[in-house]
Amino acid sequence: MFKKRWYKLSKTIFSNREKGFTLVEALVASLLLVMITGALLTGLGTTNTVLLRTDARETAKNLAETQLEYIKNIDYNPLATSYDTSAIIMPAHYSATNVVYLGSDVNHFNPVRDNNIQKIVITITGAGITYNLEGFKTR
Predict the structure, then answer these.
(1) Which of 11, 44, 104, 135 has the most C-beta neighbours closer than 10 Å?
(2) 94 φ/ψ angles, rounded to the nearest 5 degrees
(3) pLDDT at 132
(4) Are the beta carbons of 126 and 137 closer than 8 angstroms?
């Protein structure tokens, strides 16, 4: 008896035309899935770009610090306008330049003018970035 009632009740609740998904529902579900996947892949691509840029900047920073420490350990030359750093091995796609300003230079040492100090500016270029580091060398 219970089975007959349930069968009649289920037949009135679930009519024949409500047996599955309609084409519109399937298309909406597919569209949502594509949009979520696209947003996820875009986020991953952006993250990868940021990581590469950060890695290049950190590499340039480390190279500049190495150059500066190397120059600080070389004997003081009061007439130097740059120091030879060719002994330092640079990775591919990176290059370094250094400029030395003497302590008597009015533009870079104002108001203190002392011939026993040099301002060293290291510039590392490569991998789409330019990194500058300044330091001082004393006699």
Answers:
(1) 135
(2) -120, 145
(3) 95
(4) no
